[in-house]
Amino acid sequence: MIKNTKQTIGIIGGGQLGQMMAIAAQYMGHKVITLDPNPNCSAAKVSDELIVAPYDDVENLLRLAYACDVITYEFENVSAEALHEIEACVKIPQGIRLLEITQNRRFEKEFLTNEAKVKVAPWQLIDSKEKLPQVVTKKQVLKTTTGGYDGHGQVVLKTDKDLSAAQSLTEISECVLEDFISFDREISVIISGNGHEYVTFPLAENEHRENILHQTISPARVTDKITDEANKIAKSIAEKLKLSGTLCVEMFLTADGQIYVNELAPRPHNSGHFTIEACDFNQFDLHIKGILGEDLPEPKLLNAAIMLNVLGQHVEAVKVLNHNHADWHQHDYGKPDAKHNRKMGHVTILTNDFDKTINEIKATKIWD
């Protein structure tokens, strides 16, 4: 008798990542129930059921827990405290500790330094404005320990003029002060695990604009030695976490080949969207397989690719790509309001010539 392997998966968070998790799960034959406060969230269209409730609503989280075999989360702003209230009722394979680590920059840096023993930028805890430097002698970045994303909740210290804004930030939150790393490029490793085995996707090279991911190139234009070292770092982190599901490890690569871990994202990541078209298994496929404890294949790169984010200001211009570049893969997250710098979708271009494709992207003038 063949055991029924179909599961009911609960997803906390119905944004584009929840949407793509749900699509992957549906393709595998699983049922999906999503919890999100927005009845028109991206994942609503691809879920079997939507529970409209805040992420910290314990009553509705319990409702989700009792209806599901396993629960996953699509982003870091889920309430860890609320998840502790339901963990006795349902499996949460990603783990609440991973969420707690990545929700707090202090906890994250302490974990990376003391447990994973990987290199991070020199940093110090700033829990009062008195602990800030009196004068700026080197470039540093002050970040709130919680709540920051896409550049929010941080101040770059370049001159003494920046100290006033830094002091204001310390009055509303505990912060970490990091030395600025002069990096050659930003890279990221997307890694998936099932609790005891871990596989990595092709290394990604990232470009940010206004602290929002603009473009990802994969495979990253680095040496095999750098790729191997980045994967080794990611696997050491995954092993310490006993990772189930997909994790992104964001890193800085310096001109002399040093790699510093910048931060962790405890779920599929924007820089891994290229895997949907460019790999035989994508980051969402292996996230679902990982949280269900299934065996994981080593993902293969089928074609080099460039992924571009489509923000609110790009939406209208991107429509012409259907005619001018029919071979470019467009993804629309189904969000109704195209706000400035809001992620509305992405475009993935399969290519055998990065320079030629980058010139084609520039010629569109969409992302100028």
TrEMBL record:
Q: Which UniProt keywords apply?
A: ATP-binding, Ligase, Lyase, Manganese, Nucleotide-binding, Purine biosynthesis
Every copy of the ATP-grasp domain together lies at 110-292
One annotated GO molecular function is: 5-(carboxyamino)imidazole ribonucleotide synthase activity
Keyword Cell inner membrane among UniProt keywords: no
Q: Which reaction does it catalyse?
A: 5-amino-1-(5-phospho-beta-D-ribosyl)imidazole + hydrogencarbonate + ATP = 5-carboxyamino-1-(5-phospho-D-ribosyl)imidazole + ADP + phosphate + 2 H(+)
Annotated ATP binding sites:
105, 143, 148-154, 178-181, 186, 208, 262-263
Q: What does the record give as its pathway?
A: Purine metabolism; IMP biosynthesis via de novo pathway; 5-amino-1-(5-phospho-D-ribosyl)imidazole-4-carboxylate from 5-amino-1-(5-phospho-D-ribosyl)imidazole (N5-CAIR route): step 1/2
Assigned EC number: 6.3.4.18
Q: Give the record's GO CC terms.
A: cytosol
Q: Which domain of life is it from?
A: Bacteria
Keyword Lyase annotated? yes
The protein's required cofactors: Mn(2+); Mg(2+)
Any Pfam family matching the protein: RS_preATP-grasp-like
**Top-level EC class as recorded in UniProt:** ligase
GO terms of biological process kind: 'de novo' IMP biosynthetic process
What's this protein's family per the entry? Answer: Belongs to the PurK/PurT family.
Query: Which HAMAP family does this chain map to?
Result: PurK
Protein task: Catalyzes the ATP-dependent conversion of 5-aminoimidazole ribonucleotide (AIR) and HCO(3)(-) to N5-carboxyaminoimidazole ribonucleotide (N5-CAIR). Catalyzes the ATP-dependent conversion of 5-aminoimidazole ribonucleotide (AIR) and HCO(3)- to N5-carboxyaminoimidazole ribonucleotide (N5-CAIR).
Quaternary structure, from the entry: Homodimer.
Task: Report what the protein is called.
Answer: N5-carboxyaminoimidazole ribonucleotide synthase
| Organism this protein belongs to | Lactococcus lactis subsp. cremoris (strain MG1363)
